[in-house]
Amino acid sequence: MTDDATTADAIRGTAQGTAPVPLSVLDLVTVGAGTTATDALRNSVALARLAERRGYLRHWIAEHHSMPGIASSSPAVILSHLAAHTERIRLGSGGVMLPNHAPLVIAEQFGTLEALAPGRVDLGLGRAPGTDGATAAALRRTDRLNEGADDFPQQLVELTRFLDDAFPDGHPYARIHSVPGPVQGPAGRPPIWLLGSSGFSAQLAGMLGLPFAFAHHFSAQNTVPALDLYRSSFRPSEVLSEPYALIGVAALAAEDEAEAHRQVMTGALSMVRLRTGRPGLVPTPEEAEAYAFSEMERDFVDGWLTNIVYGTPDAVRDGLDDLQKRTGADELMITANAHTAAVRLHSYELIADAYGLPGAAPVA
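RESULT FIELD:
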């Protein structure tokens, strides 16, 4: 089976500069201490514009809930705003948590996004709640949380049929049309990606011939097994004739290693607080430096830092190259852990410079 060239090209992309594979951006719309969600959303626009200028392939927004340090609870709304402020970069969800929503609602939201930014929208789907159990129950209006995850394949089929306007005759939803959508005339639709941090979505993506995105940035020990499972399970489809897998990578570049470490420690402290039931705004570097980590917390931080590529631009480039070689990833999607937007934006610039990506600012 051969894939649809237009859809496959939208998925595969092209590496820029000396990067071994396309580079992309995963945006958590971080809210740092002393800033607001309004600031974070403005910074997201600035990041999308930078990413577009520097040749990053995609800018994805990740759905999270009830986390004070993150303002990305509504990816479709944010993506609509980013579409109005960019022209070429692909925009998508990394991802929308399918069990949190009715498939028709997602089809309508992303059909609308596709109409606003034709040919630029990706629909990444996850099966986790993107939050704690109590918040997931509030989102879904049920305490039967396992039911949503177990029904993920069925929900995926339903969503795909809404996007394609393709329910068979006699189906209860056959007369329901997702709009904007095919019922209004010929139009493209967002490619579907499956996201995961374990083997379930990897195997499902392979069986369906869909692209796969793995959350290496918080599940590094499962990366290679999941990608191997995806590739061994892959069956050619109308979407892809060969597997295509990206991995999310936490990376931060600064002028020197000490400053990079100082900045990533803000994310480390934020994660410690989240894991111990004390989520809050992302702390400042000064707060992270002054914090007295317990022995258990220090062990957690040491392990967490091993999954982050940070340091000078050359060191980050070498680390990303090594990670790509070890995993065989077809694309690297970079997320930056730091309190300050200026630090995150500068990191993406430095990484782009290290790879010779286009759009560099002229030297004064």
